[in-house]
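TICKET: design request
STATUS: open
ATTACHED STRUCTURE:
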């Protein structure tokens, strides 16, 4: 499965040489979850990540090549939550390794791949972390976070939020590993990262369309442009529709 490989590579290029901290996954150090979405009022928040004109975005990339995701971990570029005094830019990247048997290597695997990528992406809508209110969009790559003063007093950190994301990803059948990257460093090229997030979202939407049976006539197909750019997507599209 090579659908997201170029995004993995371009993202690595964008972050290469930058200072970061890596935290190995610790299942017993996740951040507590609420049973449902928790609304944090502005008066109870200490700061917001990615609000206003600041960058606030996220992307999810999936692969079956373990060289791209060689361990479960959280990586941080920039200040951690206890070090932030005011709002800042924010970017989250989730990189997911899935088992090779569920990667759409043949036309018959395509429906399972489409469903798995969708289920992995849907995790972001159900991370109800206490004191870390995630507002993520289903129509764009936008993601903002409001952090409460109480959570900061209790020791919230990106490593613990990352552990929570990783645990929830690993609960999905077919997921082998997950790396979650948080970026808050001011000198980051956020525009370039957002462009990669848009490409990743286009791939996900294209997979959804393939699963619903898009036409095989390229001239009439709504994913023609992205299909031509992404290695493996056209083969998956034509193969699936030929057998469905």
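STATUS: resolved
RESOLUTION: sequence designed for all positions
ATTACHED SEQUENCE:
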């Amino acid at each position: 499965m090579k659908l997201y490989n170029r995004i993995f590579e371009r993202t690595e290029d964008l972050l290469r040489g930058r200072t970061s901290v890596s935290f190995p996954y610790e299942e017993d150090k996740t951040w507590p979850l609420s049973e449902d979405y928790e609304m944090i009022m502005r008066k109870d928040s200490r700061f917001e990540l990615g609000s206003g004109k600041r960058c606030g975005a996220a992307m999810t990339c999936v692969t079956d090549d373990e060289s791209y995701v060689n361990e479960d971990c959280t990586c941080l570029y920039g200040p951690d939550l206890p070090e932030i005094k005011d709002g800042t830019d924010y970017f989250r990247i989730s990189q997911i390794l899935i088992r090779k048997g569920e990667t759409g290597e043949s036309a018959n695997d395509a429906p399972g791949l489409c469903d798995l990528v969708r289920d992995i992406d849907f995790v972001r809508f159900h991370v109800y972390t206490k004191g870390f209110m995630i507002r993520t969009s289903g129509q764009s790559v936008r993601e903002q976070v409001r952090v409460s003063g109480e959570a900061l007093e209790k020791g919230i950190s990106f490593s613990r939020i990352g552990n929570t994301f990783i645990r929830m990803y690993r609960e999905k059948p077919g997921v082998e590993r997950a790396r979650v990257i948080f970026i808050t460093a001011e000198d980051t090229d956020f525009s370039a990262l957002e462009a990669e997030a848009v490409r990743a979202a286009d791939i996900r939407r294209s997979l959804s369309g393939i699963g619903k049976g898009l036409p095989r006539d390229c001239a009439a197909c709504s994913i023609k442009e992205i299909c031509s750019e992404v290695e493996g997507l056209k083969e998956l599209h034509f193969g699936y529709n030929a057998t469905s």
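CLOSING REMARK: The chain has one domain: 5-243. Strands lie at 21-24, 45-49, 56-63, 73-77, 90-98, 132-136, 143-148, 175-183.
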